[in-house]
Amino acid sequence: MFELEKAISKWLKALRKIPAFEDGDIAEIEDHIREEIENKHTSGLNYEQAFISAIQSFGPLECLGEEMIRSRTKHLKIPHSHYSVPEIHYPTNSFFNITAMFKNFLIISIRNLNRNKVFSVINIFGLAIGMAACLAIAQYVHFEMSYDRFHKNADHIYRVLLADIKKTHASNHPGTGPMLKDEFPEVKDYARMVHQTIFYRAVSTWSHIDEYDQIKTFNIQNVYNVDPSFVTMFSFPFLYGNPETAFTDLNSVVISRSVSQKFFGSENPVGKILIRDGYRSFTVTGVIDVLENSHMKFDMLLSYFFTEAWGGGWSHTVDWKWPEYFTYIQLDPAADPKYLEAKFQDVIPKYLGDWMKAINRQAYFRLQPIKDIHLKSPLLNKEYVVHGSVNTVNFLSIIAVIILVVAWFNYINLSTARSIERAREVGFRKVAGASKKQLIIQFLLESVILNIPAILLAFIIFIISVPWFNDLAGLKIGFSGLYNETWFWISLGIIFMLGSLLAGIYPAFVLSSIRIITVIKGKYSNSAGGIMFRKLLVGGQFAISIALIAGTLIVYRQVSFMRNKDLGYNKEQMLVVKVPTVVDSTFASRAESFLNELENYSGQKKFTVASEVPGKWIPNVNSVKKEGSEEIEIFGCSYVSIDHNFIDTYEMKAVAGRNFRVNEYSKLIPGKIIPVMINEKAAEILGFKNPEESISEHILFTVGDLEWTGEIIGVVNNYHQRSFRMDYDPMVFGYYTWGIQYICINLNTGNLIESVAYIKDLYKSSFPGNPFEYFFQDDYFDMQYASDKQFGKVFGLFSLLAIIVASLGLFGLTTYIILKRTKEIAIRKILGASIQGLVILFSKDFIRLIVIANLLALPITYIFVNNWLNNFKFKININWIMFVLPMIVLLIIALVTTSIQTIRSSFINPANTLKYE
Amino acid sequence: MIASKGLMAATTKSMILSILKEGKNYGYNIIQRVKKISGGSLNWSDGMLYPVLHRLEKEGFITSEWIVGDLDRKRKYYSITEAGKAELLAEKESWITVHTILSQLWDLNPLYNVRT
Q: pLDDT tens digit string along A503-539?
């Protein structure tokens, strides 16, 4: 039966489908139709006839729609032949539509993150670790690069290096600075800096007596003599005092903030008196902040022209004979340093002719920009401070990037692997009219949204761990100012943007390229290319992990090798006490009674006195040659003053000849041939075929500008004076030739604390007014490897992080793959597959990948590791275990991961998995 | 007689404006007026009126308002604007000109009827 209302609403529904009609139009038309129907009905038609007649006279809807659109748009041309849905121009630049679109993207993204919690957590956590590691390393790198840039003239200050064919020295002759300023107008100023040990002693004792007659005494090591221009040419901040007048008086001393704190607390010390070694007074004229990022580290600065050795005056006889002076020059901004270096060659023979003749080598001056000193001073001779290494900076930067890349790989892997799940969504969006561009934007946005919590978490991890990290890496970086630094926020932004876009772009393209037709037909699956790409990424992660594990292993082995290798001397239970420096007329008798008391102390096996101990660089280097030889055989030879007990105390041996006898002094007296011992290395360089051959031979060696003759009485075995990075140093030993600085005691007791306490009491009562300073030889030795150990730790930490992130990714991927194959597992189980069989089946792919990754990673790792090991003169041999072990570790990780997943999945009753679909 | 499609389209504007000059009116009634006057010689399909009404409104010749009438039915009423009146005048002149020319050509005037 005909129902009018139904018929009308059906007709109106058809009308509504035509986009041309707006709600108002439809209401108007409905009114029209109803009235027409009523009129027709009144004139005798039934409702059905009236309805049909009314809609017939209303005319075809399609034509009407066309006219309607034309009435609204003036210029729109619509073909008359048939009606087509007009192209609807959404106002894409409209703010509201874009917000609506992004709102929708946001909702979808958040839902996706929420739905796949495991993937989200793995991604966010991995990214956060990578980002935090990057930030930590970024602040380290930034700090290392900031060295010496705080000087106002940093761009124009250079250090003048002294080079010959064999070596380049960080220090230069005292005459170099003044000469360059005289000869070259481009040289605006110069400043020399020389350690007190060259004139005086390595450590001096300083005291201050306050107004209450309280005395404070400290041993200070880094005391330098500098030109007055030092404080004006460089821009060290003066906390107190005036740089212009700091050195107008010869008895001035400028102290560092830390020394000032030790003596004077927070008071202004300018004008106060400090007494050196009990008899020489200096007036404090300034307090300097020795910034952490300065390559020069000093505690005190004295005037260059105050030199004890010359009785207050300066002897120009050594101007060109004593290359121990760090020389800095400031150039005119317009000067070209390369051109200047070449011009130096014209004047060098005039000043260094004699010296070049003596060493039989051409000398050169090189200009090293001050900004390069910290990171680019590769193995310069006579360098006083251990500088940073550009290799370490580069290396850590690479590791930071690697961790981040591994985290990005995780994101790419996991999101493309999930494309099957997303295919339907993409299909629907495309049907609804989403363009490829919009889809790419959506997936990129998803990546951005994932990166937001990641970067927040990274920031938190960074803040919590950075003090700890800096401690581990041995960095003294002021952390508080970090947030004021533009670079910090810029790097944060870069990491975020790169992470979001770089890692997001591939999945965005893959996902947006899904074809609707394959989705609808249910045939969508991952493309072979996509699977291959994912395998490549996972393989890359494996390769990185293998390289890092192998690297960590080798660094660890090398560090422990250095700590445990036979050094050629005994370092265990060796107590080293610094000799008193504050002395008076009673010192000789006091020293004798101290040594006698020590002799009688049962806690010691043997003791000795010496100018140097193993484990440090010896600055007293002299040229040595055989008597009658034309050429200097040893250019830099360490000279150590010892006594007859030195060799026995340190448990070394005389491999040829004999040891010193009691009171067989080697004092430098003109005309006297002094008895000396040398080590095996010196004998070798001097050209003796074996140590025995050198016995009773004469050698000539220089001290300052004087030459002395020594007779070799014995040869000491080679021992590691310095770190394993260095070769054995050639050494000459004399009996009490000069400056004894250490009393070295080989203890035989198990109770070290008691022994130290006993010796301290003895020292204090024998040498009042002197601080008791001591260390243990093994700690001192270990200090040399502090930077290597730190490197090992930092390297290990970041390797571990990279491996964790990669393992997370592996875990995510296996979880996903096995989830997709749950049904397959069920069917295989029904057909009788064993769990072991399933584990093998699913691990096979990963095992193959690991083996291939191993083959790829090993040659690269070998090159890197070998390169690092080449820093060491004494190093471990690389063997195959170090390369197989990482693979085994990785295989275990992969096997455990897949096994857990497979076993868990295979315990599910096959009926449960198979009953769906 | 049934007018051609082109002619109908050309006359619609004038007719609607003329009807609305009599007073405000709504779509259905406008159609009925046209049908009644023409005695069915102008065969519009009813629906075609509405696009024309919309266009006239857009051009500013007429305005519309919704008025709730009997039985609470909303109905859209149109009325002519001043611009519409001016337009109607112009249309009228055009049509009279055309009419005069055609009348003379076709000797409808008795003064020229001598030859027949």
A: 788 888 877 877 777 766 666 666 666 777 778 888 8
Q: What percent of chain A has pLDDT over 70?
A: 90
Residues belonging to chain B with any Cβ–Cβ distance to chain A shorter than 8 Å? 26-28, 31, 45-48, 50-52, 54-55, 58, 73-76
B107 vs A247, higher pLDDT: A247
User: CB–CB of B74/B67 below 8 Å?
Assistant: yes
Of the residues B26, B50, B55, the best mutation for testing chain A's interface (the one with the most A CB atoms within 10 Å of its CB) is B50
DSSP A728-740: PPPEEEEES-S--
Full-prediction pTM beyond 0.80? no
Q: Which long-range contacts (CB under 8 A, 24 or more apart) does A824-828 make?
A: A825/A902, A825/A905, A825/A906, A825/A908, A825/A913, A826/A908, A826/A910, A826/A913, A826/A914, A827/A910, A827/A914
Spatial CA neighbour of B72 closest among A36, A8, A25, A31:
A31
Chains A, B: CB contacts under 8 A, how many? 55
Measure the CA–CA gap between A311 and A372, rounded to whole angstroms.
37
The answer to whether the CB of B42 falls within 8 A of the CB of B112 is no
Q: How far is CA A699 from CA A455, A633, A655, A703, A711, in A?
A: 67, 10, 19, 13, 6
Residue in A34, A58, A71 nearest the CB of B54:
A71
H or E element that contains A285: strand A280-288
Distance of CA A224 to the CA centre of its chain: 30
Task: For A51, list phi and psi in degrees, rounded to 5.
Answer: -60, -50
Subunit contact B74:A29, Cβ cutoff 8 A: no
Closest Cβ opposite residue B27 in set A32, A70, A71: A32
**Mapping DSSP to helix (H, G, I), strand (E, B) and coil, where does residue A652 land?**
coil
Q: Which residues of B touch A32 (CB under 8 A)?
A: 27-28, 31, 46, 50
Token pair of A372 as six digits: 């390069």
Q: Say which amino acid occupies A667.
A: K
Q: How far apart are CA A330 and CA A744, in angstroms?
A: 44
Ranked by mean pLDDT, the top range of A235-249, A413-427, A619-633, A869-883 is A235-249
Which of B12, B25, B26, B45 has the highest number of chain A CBs within 10 A, making it the mutation to test binding with A?
B45
Query: Which range (A134-138, A290-294, A341-345, A521-525) has the least confidence?
Result: A521-525
CB contact under 8 A, B48 and A59: yes
Considering only CB atoms, which chain A residues are within 8 Å of B75? 31
Contact predicate A645/A742, CB 8 Å: no
ipTM for this prediction: 0.83
